[in-house]
Amino acid sequence: xxxxxYLRFVLSVFVAAGHVSLYPQPSLIHLSIGxxxxxxxxxxxxxxxxxxxxxxxxxxxxxxxxHPSKSVKARETGYSGGAVYSAELNGLRRGRTYFYKxxxxxxxxxxxxxxxxEPLKGSFTVAVIGDTQDNTNNENFVKSxxxxxxxxxxxxxxxxxMGDIVNDGSMTSSWENYLKMSxxxxxxxxxxxxxGNHDVNNVKGDNFxxxxxxxxxxxxxxxxxxxxxxxxxxxxxxxxxxxYAQAAEPLGEVKFKPGSPEYAWLDTELxxxxxxxxxxxxxxxxxxxxxSFGWSNVKGWGDNILPLLNNHSVDLCLAGHRxxxxxxxxxxxxxxxEKDTTKSLSASEGTLFITxxxxxxxxxxxxxxxxxxxxxxxxxxxxxxxxxxxxRGSIAFKVFDEDNNTIDHFVLTK
Length: 414
Ligand SMILES: [Fe+2]
Fold this sequence. Notes:
By secondary structure, the protein is α+β, with helices and mostly antiparallel strands. The chain folds into two domains: 21-116, Purple acid phosphatase-like, N-terminal (Immunoglobulin-like, Sandwich); 124-413, 4-Layer Sandwich (Purple Acid Phosphatase, chain A, domain 2), CATH 3.60.21. It is 18% helix and 30% strand. Fe (ii) ion binds at residues 164, 196-198, 287, 321. Fe (ii) ion is lined by residues 164, 196-198, 287, 321.
């Protein structure tokens, strides 16, 4: 046999045995949580990926064994860079580990990943990151990769992203590079982002503050994908879109204007969560903080959203945008709590506001010490992320720098 034919024969044997693929593996693999709950089951999980090989049907094969066998056919759509496949996994049992792979025999398979479903009882872990934008010093998300590697050590069950995922949402390559860089964590725990000003159209006109198609094509989020909610454990998570608030303010186009559809939606969501006996905690996350310093403080955003939050029992309100860490004093019915140096906080004192703004985007300032509501902010400029361990009666919140030094920690109790 000629040497070339011999090598082809050897390769075909390995392919047939499933040891190697002739094609590049599926890429941009990430999980997201669906909003529709089946009573008694864990929240549905959607697997989304891209494939360079458009060869027809692709699947997710999943199950509770390390070599899964249950197959779900994927829906095929596209984005400006190629094909997108997604499949929703329903009827998942709580407190279990599931294994899966995605792709097809013809197009190639991913490796086998695993994820945990929401717990039957006990705690779960949520990562909080923001502003991973690929700007100065974070070209190709090099800094974000370091921060996410540290985050991954905490084995989060899901990640909340505060927005400014990319530096310029019009660039398809940035969305691709983010999902490639973060695949190891996103393929094993859902990524639930809200959008920041850098992610959306900044050009004034009909499409001002509108997300780009690549976002809708690549991220499979619940609802309309910019304002959405989901339940995980006994927590109602509500993500809201603050647009490009800074530029929208002089145009009178700041989001969540009283009387707007999104205002009514959020009012209804918060009321429903408050009245749900199965919900212990309400966590809202957004890009623009309601209270910040200098150019990042957009009065119109606070004016719109704060009265609505004050009218409801929101436990935690998380934001990004400013590349700092700030923990603010709790606010109850519009009244700011007294300064308190304790690390044990009671949810009965009101909503706790946190700005946790950089998992890669260039940090340029320390936090706003001069803001009257700031309870704690470190003196130095740094990258940071937070880890929340959420139980029925407590949220243990820890903030770390990129070297995993603890920057702040507190426990919020019911
Ligand atoms: Fe921002």
